[in-house]
Amino acid sequence: MSDRHIHPIFEKLLQREEREQRLGQRSKVIWLTGLSGSGKSTLALRLERLLFEEGYFAQVLDGDNIRSGINNNLSFSIEDRQENIRRIAEISRLYLHSGLITINCFISPTRAIREYARQIIGPEDFLEIYINAPLDVCESRDVKGLYQKARNGEIKEFTGIDSPYEAPEKPDLEIRTDQLSVQDATGVLFKFLLPHIEKRI
Known about the structure:
The longest helix has 20 residues, at 78-97. The protein has helices at residues 16-23, 40-53, 63-67, 78-97, 111-121, 135-140, 146-151, 182-197; strands at 29-33, 58-62, 101-105, 126-132, 173-176. The protein is 43% helix and 13% strand. The chain is globular and about 55 Å long. It has a 5-stranded parallel beta sheet, sandwiched between helices. By secondary structure, it is of the alpha/beta class.
């Protein structure tokens, strides 16, 4: 179907500012990036719960959940990883305009892929958080045995083993999960986030 047959009605919908006012928060997209096993999902779940307890409305988007549903037709090739991120970024943008705080936890291994997501979402609403832990620590936490399978050649294109991970050069925040407890790391993330989501009077 030609683009000329598509007529978006965004300007007729309730606007983001109205939704934010109703929810009493400013919407943002928090993008947690890091190796498998670095602690992204653990921190995302703790942060979502803490935000809820503090009166904020947030939604976690997690790699495994997304790949078992809307993106279950994608592989782990670089091309499909980019399409995976494109779809996630578009969903995040919808949540953003709904007034929600979106917590994304995706390896998103290259700087180009993360920049692609940033441009779709909007640089002013995209907070890149580097969840950093050394590879050996990530492997030691690997309850699913994915790293071992990758080293045995059972899983191809696994980030950190036979597919590269490019660490952020200037993340908005870096959290070393090998040096902080889960509770302390969640506290650091919440304290950083608060000025970005508090509703301006």
